[in-house]
Every structure is written in C-alpha cells, then in structure tokens.
Amino acid sequence: MNFIIISLIIFSMILASFSNLLLRYKNKKMVDFLGTFALLTLSPLLLPQVYKIFYTKSAKDISIIYLICHYVTALSWYYYGIAISRPSIFIANLIVFVSINFLIIGKILYN
Questions:
Q1: Of 38, 36, 34, 51, which is closest to residue 9 (Cα–Cα)?
Q2: Which of 3, 14, 95, 99 satisfies CB 3.0 to 4.6 Å to 43 for a cystine?
Q3: pTM for the full model?
C-alpha cells in the first residue's frame, strides 16, 4: 500500500514538472489533463491520516511543525491557482487545506 502511494506521488510530481514545458508550447488540453490527474491523485492523500487520528483518538505521531508548513504551502498554492486561473490547482489545494485543518484540529484535541 505504501509503495502505491509513494509511486503515485512521484509520478504526479514528474507530471507536474512537465506542465511548465507544456505551457510553453501552449498545449492547454494536456496541461488541464495533468492538473486534473494531480487533483485526483494528490488531494485525497491526507484523508487516511485524518481518519486514523479521529478513529484512534491519537495524534502524537504527527508533527505540528509539519502541519504548519503544509498549511502555509497549501494556502500559497491555493492563491497561486486563483491568480493564474487554474481550477485544478486551487481545487486540489483547497481539498488539501481542508484536510490539514482537520489534522490540526485532531492534533489539538488528541495530542
């Protein structure tokens, strides 16, 4: 299971790196496809952790520094997606942002 998740993350990162190259050549359909693929693969990755925290009522293994850094990063990507009018970027990061909020609430409640 971990191998599949790690593979999807690496694959999504590789595809995201190609999006800048595709934008240079104005291949909008391919860029939108890659954005949608990233939305579907990267956005739900925090949901199992949210489930685990609230199911086990324990958040001692989650670093608050990690959560704060991820929070700031997701919020930055969200506003970037809005600024460049890319729905796939801001929707994906809105999902991540909401998931991180649940993780922070879980950390506060069950630390």
A1: 38
A2: 95
A3: 0.69
Residue 29 neighbours by CB under 8 Å, 6+ apart: none
Q: What is the number of other CB atoms lying within 10 angstroms of the CB of residue 44?
A: 13
Provide the residue count of the chain.
111
CA-derived radius of gyration, the chain: 15
Domains in the chain, number: 1
Tens digits of per-residue pLDDT, 65-110?
A: 888 888 888 888 888 888 888 887 888 888 888 999 999 999 999 9
Q: What is the pLDDT of residue 105?
A: 93
CATH of the domain at 48: 1.20.1280.290
Taking the chain, what is the end-to-end CA distance rounded to the nearest angstrom? Answer: 26
Domain that holds residue 63: 2-110
